[in-house]
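Exercise: predict the fold of this chain.
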Amino acid sequence: MSNYFIQTYTWNPWHNLAVEKYLSTRIKKGDVIFYLWQNDRTVVIGRNQNAIRECRARLLEEEGGCLARRTTGGGAVYHDLGNLCFTFLASPEVYNLEKQLKVVQAACRKFGVETRFSGRNDIITKDGFKFSGNAFSNTSQCSIQHGTLMVDVDVSQLGRYLTPSREKMKAKGVKSVQSRVCNLKELNTEVTTDAMRQALKESFEELYGSFEELDEKLLDNPLVKETYDLYSSWEWKFGKSPECETSYSRRFDWGEVEVCLKLNAMHISGITVFSDMLDVELPGLLEQLLAGRRYDMADIDFKKDLPLCSEEQKEKLQDVVKWLADPLRND
């Protein structure tokens, strides 16, 4: 039976989640690993969530952020460098959620912040404000609890990225539940992410006893790289999204267009176009162009993929595609 501690200072979510996956493969009987990490400008969605329902993913990426899909359930969360993530990885026979939560609570208590665990997998203040969300997974080898700690998050960005665009959507994915949130720094100005890292490390030792600190160099290995490539892929981030239906409308100089899409694995599996334009052929041409394409339109090549039609129709088709590909189209 051994206790281990490791922390990273790489702000990339795909790397950090790949590290978590790798650490889970190292767990032996009786082992516990406590892992601290941070992501910058990232939205992390749950395993079964619909990316476009939960956040403005394309706007996030246009502005230099990252979308990540974790392997656990739960809702969508926003991370920046004011947030600190923690993960407990344990052999199932020594996995102890109550004890693990006490590590977090003890660390908060070092700053005079009293907390409690709510019934919906959150850690909240005594006044009921959420500052930590948790999610879980279990295999025969390893049980995982990972969570967030809002230390000094830019909460203005939650609404910018987490609030879905104003789209008429019916989706089968799990919808996030909104909660009242607060930063720990609001309760004690001395709380920083570095100070909380140290407090968590101390609390882990106080509750679990001595531990071995793992060298970050061990993370430079083929398994981490392979998992990173998977987690950063479009297929993992978007293609795992459940089937959904959505529609958009806009008035162009030449007429109003409403595009109704059915999406499967974030590809257009069905499309219907309604319009009051005088050109009765254009809706059919647009349906022909978009059927089977990726939702972000990134696989459309105007030089190769436009159907046979007039130059005027080609210009209008390009207008519609560029509008649909614009992450701010509905804002």
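Check your answer against the key: Residues 165-169 have pLDDT under 50 and may be disordered.
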